[in-house]
């Protein structure tokens, strides 16, 4: 699609995801104007300083005024209050979407505040880094990544098609699914792995027989990849676990069973079981590379820093 998809996009919250959206929208000319706002004066000031958004307003109400697309890009636990604050100022016919990592909780927190005549299409770009804040965004974050949209049944197809065009314009592939299914898929692919990484790094932190300097020095042996994930934003991840409780607990239950099975195989010296298990997991990794969702370059494609 060429030319603007929306006239005025309002970005509520100016962290990693919203700032990446701004740079991607601007690069591809997907909106005539992008207005942004954030909770703290400090973030709004930074945004003005680095030219993040065409206009930065001090309040959510001012930001959504006359916008035909409003994007909620704040932590999941804050979405309801933000939706309530902006609701009276939403333009008729506008679309409200979000980028939250959990979907059912957002549908329940935001949905009741959306006025008649405004479309509500929750969304979730499956793209991120461990960095946050207004300076962390970049235009290519969504390139070749998935964005999942979870419109409620009965949502106007034209409104969904327009939002899809925006995400595709920013480089993403778009798929639609139901909110509960989204939450289960993400519990497997993202939420449980994050919890495991947090735990692993926490364990290393507790182990006094291995010194901190040894943990850091020899981290390339596997630990380093956990530390990157475990460096993710604490507020965002607290909210993910509080709002995707059931699916995460279900997957963690399964995880614990598998862990016990592996533990038993190690204890009993069942090499056959371990080999078969690792052969199966290796095939999953190959599938991810073949789907273009990661690189098989040595060391995960990391640029050598000389360190
Ligand atoms: P971020 O960089 O930490 O930015 C969060 C923004 O939300 C900031 O502008 C912050 O304002 C604002 N905010 C925080 N608490 C708030 C509150 N209680 N009320 C109003 N505004 C508040 O976060 P992000 O990584 O862009 O994440 C934003 C959303 O995207 C989250 O819902 C997250 O689940 C989702 N998401 C994140 C990733 C990822 O990897 N990071 C990936 C996909 C989706 P101040 O700066 O003024 O504090």
From TrEMBL:
Domain of life: Bacteria
Keyword terms, alphabetized: Amino-acid biosynthesis, Aromatic amino acid biosynthesis, NAD, Oxidoreductase, Tyrosine biosynthesis
Keyword NAD: yes
Entry-linked PROSITE patterns: PDH_ADH
Keyword Amino-acid biosynthesis listed: yes
Pfam families the record matches: PDH_C, PDH_N
InterPro entries cross-referenced by the UniProt entry: 6-PGluconate_DH-like_C_sf, NAD(P)-bd_dom_sf, PDH_C, PDH_N, Preph/Arog_dehydrog, Prephen_DH
One BP annotation, GO: tyrosine biosynthetic process
Ranges of residues in domain Prephenate/arogenate dehydrogenase: 7-296
Enzyme Commission designation: 1.3.1.12
Reaction(s) the record says it catalyses: prephenate + NAD(+) = 3-(4-hydroxyphenyl)pyruvate + CO2 + NADH
GO molecular function term, any single one: NAD+ binding
Pathway(s) served: Amino-acid biosynthesis; L-tyrosine biosynthesis; (4-hydroxyphenyl)pyruvate from prephenate (NAD(+) route): step 1/1
Family stated for the protein in its record: Belongs to the prephenate/arogenate dehydrogenase family.
Name listed for the protein in its UniProt record: prephenate dehydrogenase
Organism (species): Rhodosalinus halophilus
């Amino acid at each position: 699609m060429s030319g603007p998809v929306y006239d005025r996009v309002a970005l509520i919250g100016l962290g990693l995801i919203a700032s990446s959206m701004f740079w991607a929208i601007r690069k591809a000319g997907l909106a005539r104007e992008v207005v942004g706002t954030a909770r703290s004066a400090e973030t709004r000031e930074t945004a003005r300083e680095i030219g993040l958004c065409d206009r930065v307003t001090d309040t959510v109400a001012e930001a959504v005024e006359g916008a035909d697309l409003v994007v909620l890009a704040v932590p999941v636990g804050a979405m309801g209050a933000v939706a309530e604050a902006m609701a009276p100022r939403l333009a008729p016919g506008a679309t409200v979407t979000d980028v939250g990592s959990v979907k059912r909780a957002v549908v329940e927190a935001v949905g009741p505040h959306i006025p008649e005549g405004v479309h509500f299409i929750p969304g979730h770009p499956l793209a991120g880094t461990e960095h946050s804040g207004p300076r962390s965004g970049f235009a290519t974050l969504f390139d070749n990544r998935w964005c999942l949209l979870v419109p409620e049944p009965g949502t106007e197809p034209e409104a969904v098609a327009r939002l899809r065009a925006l995400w595709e314009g920013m480089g993403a592939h778009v798929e639609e699914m139901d909110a509960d299914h989204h939450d289960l898929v993400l519990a497997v692919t993202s939420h449980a792995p994050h919890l495991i990484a947090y735990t692993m790094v926490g364990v290393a932190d507790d182990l006094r027989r291995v010194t901190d300097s040894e943990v850091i020095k020899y981290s390339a042996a596997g630990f380093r990849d956990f530390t990157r994930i475990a460096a993710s934003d604490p507020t965002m991840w607290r909210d993910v676990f509080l709002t995707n409780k059931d699916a995460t607990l279900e997957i963690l239950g399964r995880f614990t069973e598998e862990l016990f099975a592996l533990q038993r195989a190690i204890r009993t010296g069942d090499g056959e079981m371990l080999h078969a298990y690792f052969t199966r997991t290796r095939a999953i990794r190959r599938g991810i590379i073949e789907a273009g969702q990661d690189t098989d370059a040595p060391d995960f494609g990391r640029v050598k820093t000389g360190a």
